[in-house]
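Run log, item B.
One chain of 479 residues. Sequence copied directly from the ordering sheet:
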Amino acid sequence: MQAQLSKAAERLIAWWVALPERWNATALIVAGWAVLVLPLVWFRGFNSDDGLAVEIARAAIEDGEWITPHFANLRYVERPALLSWLIALVSLPFGSVSQFTARLPIVLSLLAGCLAIFALLRRTASLPAALFGAAVFLACPLVLRAYVATTADLSLAVLLFLAFIVWWDGFDAKRLTLVRWVGIGLILALAALLKGPQPVAYFFFGVGLFVLLTRAWAQIPGLMLAGIVCLIPVAAWYLYVFAPGDETTWGTFMRLDESRSAPLPGPFRASLRLILDTLPAALPAALFLITERFRGTPRAPSVFVMALACYAFACTVVILFWPGGAASRYFFPMVPPLCVLAGLGFDALSSRRPVAAASALCLTFGILAYAAVYSVVASPLLPEQFRSSKIEGERIAALMRATPAPIYRWGDVALNELAYVPMRILRVDRATLEKLRGPAWIIVTPAEADALIAKRSENLRLVTPFGRTGQWSLLRLDG
């Protein structure tokens, strides 16, 4: 039985090794990315927090609020919003934000991440291992959930990984010049403008630990210079938008004041979730590090393995034990270097432990097959499950066009549905809604709708519930 299993594993590995010899590896990556991602660009409606980046981008185009992010008519300055600014720039020639323009920066970031992992492994491992590294990146559940999500986590992880590659190339060639450190600082500045300065710690903690372990003290001035270059545009943005009271908002977003933050999973639960979210990469990477004991390979010296491990795990450990817990998305920057370690592991395991390497391949194939069916088959054929926000948004937009009036929302209700309503929508508080004069459209929760109608029954009525589960209410206030 063991011999048969070993032979089957060897045949599977041989098939994978022959694949990039018959087909261009870069073309395979681009084709896989296209199959897994492009159908979702059009057939997956906005969901989760997608609508937030879209609303900020719309405010930039429609109201000229480019530097100070606005959600509808109110400031939204908990963090810089580079992703929304990019979406707005892409959308500007078309005059409005669409699903395609909103998701273009994300899907290109995903492709760039695959190609960056492939390129780094191509220099340090075999061609099949490089292809495997790109495949497991696409197969990690944490990445899979972010294929077309208009959130900054994926782009942030790719930018930070790019900074690591630029740093490693300079270190490996013994050419960590002033220009290179400035370039690293500029890349890190872009990363910080996506979600604020905290995630940049992945680079500084990782490279800093490597400097400490290898006693490469000559790099410290360069790290300081990169930090200063990174800090200048980020600090400039915070100073420009600052208004009294913003410090509380920033402290809450950065989880510096846990009394104002929602509790998140602790270290044990977060660790288990992180393993599951990165399993296709974590399995071969862990086996490689355990069995090889950081010795490296002829093409990937031990110092390279140490640098990858420091970058992947130094800040990850800090986040795991951060007071108040950690969400899975906080660990996104760990995924690209983990996939590189997985590629190195594939090379080492293929010859010594073929069953383990074949198991990693099977797991990766299984997840990618699921993702392909999800994208190519399910998303076009199941509109209610995949495009309910778009369907509902277009439905209420048609009602509003039939009898035009100012539109008001309370809080962030119907975040994704209202991203499809191409009219100006104002955010107001409940007190304003109670005094509002008609005609007007009002979007609130059902509970708030009942309370408002009870107070203003003479001229306020429910037009329709909407949302996939009817979780929002569209009201009409007559004049």
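Observations after the first pass:
- The longest strand covers residues 460-466.
- The chain has a mean pLDDT of 92.
Flagged for discussion on Thursday.
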